[in-house]
Write a structure and sequence with these properties.
Blueprint lengths: L7 E3 L6 E7 L7 E2 L2 E2 L1 E2 L22 E4 L4 E7 L5 E3 L2 E2 L1 E3 L7
Antiparallel strand pairs: 1-2, 1-5, 2-7, 3-4, 3-8, 6-7, 6-10, 8-9
């Protein structure tokens, strides 16, 4: 199944949910907890989201996989780490579009 910008993906093991912001032709499906992330319905803004879950993925943070051209925003925190081709995605200090 193909994926595109504005799709929402979720981890099949933990609570991590991401929104795809930029997807290039060379992008690969991100994984979390060692499993490919699956298409899910967006999390409602009113839904409770865990915070401060340690070394996992934090809601509101953006992550990038520069070699493959993928930028995501975490919309729900979880204990897992988002990765592409078994390499953790790099956290971005800020996302310029939202400044």
């Amino acid at each position: 199944m193909m994926f595109k910008a504005q799709d929402t993906l979720g981890c099949v093991v933990c609570d991590v949910t991401i929104l795809l912001l930029e997807v290039s032709a060379g992008a690969v499906r991100p994984a979390c907890c060692g499993h490919p992330m699956q298409a899910v319905r967006p999390t409602p803004c009113s839904a409770w989201s865990p915070r401060g879950v340690g070394a996992g993925t934090s809601a509101g943070s953006c992550y990038v996989d520069k070699p493959r051209g993928l930028v995501v925003r975490c919309t729900r925190s979880g204990s897992g780490v988002i990765s592409c081709d078994n390499e953790p995605m790099t956290p971005l200090p800020h996302w310029p579009e939202f400044e």
